[in-house]
């Protein structure tokens, strides 16, 4: 089963995708990483935090992604992106990336602390058109993430530690 990478980046100063040079770098990232992983990169922004950009993509395994991270192309991208962005975080999730709708123009991302995954899954039940729930696969970090269509998170009795409404960005 493929896994899902969820990465959060933040533009430095007043930088943005509106700059042609930065847009070209993100297009290169998308092409190179998709070529390596075999999966498309989906880019999203958070309207409440416009300096942030989030990417969601698939990998065959954590090890496959780690090989990319250490590889020459990714290291080159990290060097050229360094003046423009900060990496806020990245997680590998036990969500089959094939199950995330590639045509979603918006989605909600929630994070819950470890140990509430079963409760959250029961609470959501069949009330969503789509919802993917997965745990962080990194050792010692087992937060639960949910990606779902926007507006259907009412009724959860458990308070998330992170809540973001994400809007799709097409490069």
Overall description:
With about 170 residues, this protein is of the alpha+beta class. About 25% of the residues lie in helices and about 35% in strands. It contains four helices and eight strands. Strands 4-1-3-2-8-5-7-6 form an eight-stranded antiparallel beta sheet. It starts with a strand and ends with a strand.
Radius of gyration based on Cα positions: 16 Å
Widest beta sheet: strand line-up: 4-1-3-2-8-5-7-6
| Distance, first to last CA | 27 Å
Structural class: alpha+beta
Q: Which range best describes the helical content: under 10%, 10-25%, 25-40%, 40-55%, 55-70% or over 70%?
A: 25-40%
The SSE order reads: EHEEHHEEHEEE
Shape: globular
User: Main sheet, how many strands, which sense, barrel?
Assistant: 8 strands, antiparallel
Which blocks of ≥5 consecutive residues have pLDDT under 50?
none
Number of alpha- plus pi-helical segments:
4
Q: Can you count the beta strands?
A: 8
Concise synopsis of the structure shown:
By secondary structure, the chain is α+β, with helices and mostly antiparallel strands. The chain has helices at 20-37, 62-70, 72-81, 117-124; strands spanning 3-11, 42-46, 49-59, 85-93, 106-112, 131-135, 144-148, 162-169. It has an 8-stranded antiparallel β-sheet with strand order 4-1-3-2-8-5-7-6.
Topology of helices and strands:
Blueprint: E1 3-11, H1 20-37, E2 42-46, E3 49-59, H2 62-70, H3 72-81, E4 85-93, E5 106-112, H4 117-124, E6 131-135, E7 144-148, E8 162-169
């Amino acid at each position: 089963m493929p896994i899902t990478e969820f990465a959060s980046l933040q533009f430095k100063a007043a930088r943005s995708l509106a700059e042609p040079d930065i847009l070209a770098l993100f297009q290169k990232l998308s092409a190179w990483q998709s070529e390596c992983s075999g999966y498309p990169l989906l880019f999203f922004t958070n309207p409440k935090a416009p300096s942030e950009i989030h990417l969601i993509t698939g990998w065959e395994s954590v090890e496959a992604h780690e090989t990319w991270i250490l590889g020459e192309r990714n290291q080159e991208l990290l060097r050229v992106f360094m003046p423009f962005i900060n990496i806020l975080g990245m997680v590998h999730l036990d969500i089959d990336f094939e199950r995330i709708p590639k045509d979603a123009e918006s989605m909600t991302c929630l994070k819950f602390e470890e140990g509430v995954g079963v409760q959250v899954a029961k609470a959501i039940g069949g009330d969503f058109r789509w919802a993917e729930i997965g745990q962080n696969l990194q050792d010692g970090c087992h937060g639960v993430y949910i990606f779902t269509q926007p507006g259907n998170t009412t009724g959860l009795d458990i308070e998330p530690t992170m809540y973001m409404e994400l809007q799709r960005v097409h490069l």
